[in-house]
Design brief:
Blueprint (H helix, E strand, L loop, with lengths): L11 E4 L6 E5 L6 E4 L6 E6 L6 E2 L3 E5 L4 E5 L1 H20 L5
Antiparallel strand pairs: 1-2, 2-4, 3-4, 4-5, 6-7
């Protein structure tokens, strides 16, 4: 049976600059953060979606209509955000409430 290593360093999600995309970051090299990051020191790994908070290969900068803010979203969350106004318009026509 697989048992996780309790001493394993976990990489946290950190914005790379104010308003910038989030990436996995660790003070020391870890399986989740392997690339040296000279600006702030430490190591970075994959991007982190600011919608679902999951690691992803890339993110898109999206102006979110629901919160009137800019976020860095993965392709799946971007799709959901882009389709949200269509759902709202459809619910107004039918009188249904969008989930």
């Amino acid at each position: 049976m697989f048992e996780p290593n309790p001493n394993r360093v976990r990489a946290e999600a950190r914005e790379m600059w104010p308003g910038g995309p989030s990436r996995r970051w660790s003070k020391t090299r870890s399986p989740e953060a392997t690339m040296p990051y000279g600006e702030n020191g430490g190591y970075v790994g994959s991007y982190v979606c600011q919608g679902c908070e999951e690691s992803t290969g890339g993110v898109y900068r999206v102006i979110c209509r629901s919160q009137v803010a800019r976020k860095w979203l993965c392709a799946a969350c971007r799709s959901i955000e882009m389709s949200a106004p269509e759902k709202a318009a459809a619910s107004e026509e039918t009188g249904e409430v969008a989930a």
